[in-house]
Amino acid sequence: MFETRITKMLGIKHPILVGTMVHISCAEMVAAASNAGALGILASTNYPTREQFRVELQRLRDDGQALCRYLDILVSEGVKIVETSGHRAPEELVKEIKGAGILLIHKCVGVRYALKAQSIGADAVTVVGYENGGATGTLDITTLCLVPRVVDALSVPVIGGGGVADGRGLFALLALGAQGVIMGTAFLVSEECPIHPRLKQALIAATELDTMVVMRSTGNSHRVWVNEAARKVAELDSQGAGLEEIVQAASGGKAKRMYQQGDVNAGIMSCGQGVGLVGKVRPMKDIIEEIMHQADEVRHRLVAR
User: Same domain for 187 and 258?
Assistant: First the structure.
């Protein structure tokens, strides 16, 4: 058992947050993560209307556990933890969030952004390195360097991520001073993840070489799985294409079609370099238990030395 400031603060068994993923982090997946002792977080951007979001929150509460047009719904539905993300901390929302007794975790990619989040009242800060799937920022700092820098700079607990996909990575980040880890790619192949089986098999076959960073020219760099759509976006990037053309090529609607219909080249998919450590399709509970077992084995092996 790994008890940390984050497990105590969030009331979870394991120091693992399952990364919030657009079109993917639905009630079933989030409940499976939370029921397995980690923290799953529902992606509010999945729901175009307030009523759809409320219904999904209620489904989630029925199954297990769980911005700002939805903030009042979070408060009325009794949500206790909110994660925000981006280079700008949600200063205008903090008073209402904290006033409702909600814990605020802010996710970012650099020391100065983490310090800002702490200064406005974030209860914990998540930082992810360049290996991370999804938004990487523009600083290109690796997880190994970023996490201890942020830990040294902050007094609130730090959650680290980027390329972490097994128990060895979890233990390494705890050794760097993180109080928890955020992992996304490792759970894309969980049984509860709502993406097509063909896509899961493609990810299992992938290695650490099968990701790339796209959309740098837009100032919104993302690490994604390499497929035809990703190569097309990279090509547009390199040719100096306009923002509208790049955004259209990288549209979420195309990704949604890929997830639902199994056309593995239809859209782009956020994916970290840790995809090379992804093994097989299993229940979320089994993946989390194996991660924790491996981390415990590393701890005992180092103690024995």
Answer: no
**C-alpha 183 chain-centroid distance:** 6
How large is the average pLDDT for residues 179-187?
Answer: 97
Residue 279 lies in a domain: no
- pTM, to two decimals: 0.90
Nearest Cα neighbor of 38 from 283, 215, 298 is 283
The residue with tokens 């975790």 is: 105
Parent domain of 252 = 197-274
Tokens of 108: 């970012």
Give the position of tokens 């799937």: 133
Q: What is the arithmetic mean of pLDDT over 145-155?
A: 98
Rounded distance between C-alpha atoms, residue 209 and residue 276, angstroms: 8
Confirm whether 165 is domain-assigned. yes
Which of residues 142, 167, 191 is at a domain's end? 191
For residue 143, pLDDT over 50 is answered with yes
What is the C-alpha separation between 224 and 269, in angstroms, rounded?
5
Reported as a single tens digit per residue, the pLDDT across 36-70 is 999 998 877 776 677 777 776 776 666 544 545 56
Measure the CA–CA gap between 276 and 199, rounded to whole angstroms: 15
User: Rounded to whole angstroms, how far apart are CA atoms 128 and 140?
Assistant: 10
Tally of domains within the chain: 2
CA dist., res. 158 & res. 179, Å (int): 6
Q: What DSSP character marks residue 263?
A: -
Residue 154: pLDDT over 70: yes
Domain boundary among 133, 156, 191: 191
Residue 294 lies in a domain: no
Q: Pick the residue with more confidence: 181 or 43? A: 181
- Is residue 31 assigned to a domain? yes
The CA distance from 37 to 8, in Å, is 12
pLDDT for residue 247 is more than 90: no
